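$ run holo --ligand "adenosine-5'-diphosphate" --emit tokens
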Amino acid sequence: MRVRPSKRPSGFFTVNPDTRELEFAVPPDLAGVHHGRTNFAFRFNGMFGMGASQGEIFERVARASVDSVLDGYNATIFAYGQTGSGKTFTITGGAERYEDRGLIPRALSRIFAAFKDRPGVQYTTYISYLEIYNEGGYDLLDPSHETKTLEELPRVTLLEDEAGSVHLKNLSLHAATNEEEALNLLFLGDTNRAIAETPMNLASSRSHCIFTISLESRQEGSSTVRRSKLHLVDLAGSERTHKTNSSGQLFREATHINKSLHYLEMVIVALHEARRGLRTHIPYRNTMLTSVIRDSLGGNCMTSMIATINPEPEHTDESVSTCRFAQRVARVQNSATINEETDPSLLVRQVRWAPCTAMR
Ligand code: ADP
Ligand code: MG
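-- output --
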């Protein structure tokens, strides 16, 4: 849980870093959607107050995930919270100061630095950047973004293979050979994200953005390839639709966002029930968001969620909702394994070479 800095925090909650508990005592007139309940206590794996630095967040939330991706595991970090609570600041960072850079640039920096420490391993890095808006997928790294509107761009669509794995059609994968190239891709994607956004169409509060770093690695002389992915997800604002103007396009957007975060919650509840033996079907396919991050939700992945909170009094209701959601997410258990397979072409080569070596 991370509290966004503010000059006027409500004072309705206390953060106890020792017990990692957050307690709310909400004035009754603000307890609206929570059916008059005024006292809440939530426990988190980690708590970050208003003074927490971006470096601290990276060290405590992301470093272990990044390192496991280097070892061949999948990992996902997503930010959940109402608009203005600091999701984008946490995931991407602030543009003004170097120390404000967020988890994506720090993860890239760590990854390319780690390659140098592992000279015996060959790594290939690919970047993709997907935006999901109104149930449509858009490639933020599509070069035609500059000349086309969002509606004119080819849609990214889901394809499921016979084994049940999900693939994304029309989502480009860009090889990055160094940190600078990868950062340029992030910058390009963020620029495209901003172009599509006008005051009438505040896409960032209604869309989900998924920045994916894919790694392929092979130990020198080995025929085994490891493939792993790190998803960094900036979710749409979690605020409820009743705050949104409900006419025309705005309404359509609001309903959709509501829908995909609602289905995200349903998947999480289903995973929890499945663990207790109460059900077997997990409704991943209801919405594009859960289909895309399926592996990260109860699958083969190390997953962390950062709940971002705006401490100002009028946002108390939403802050409590965010914490309740986080609490449900925390009950889901994943099991991560290394993603390894033998490259058949390399195996053939080794088999061919073997007799020659023996003859010498
Ligand atoms: P969201 O993506 O959840 O809508 P933002 O990340 O855009 O929210 O944050 C809203 C505003 O607050 C931005 O101007 C952002 O720079 C600022 N902000 C958020 N978190 C912090 C922080 N930890 N330190 C300084 N400024 C922050
Ligand atoms: Mg944002």
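-- notes --
Residues 16 and 191 are 39 Å apart (CA to CA).
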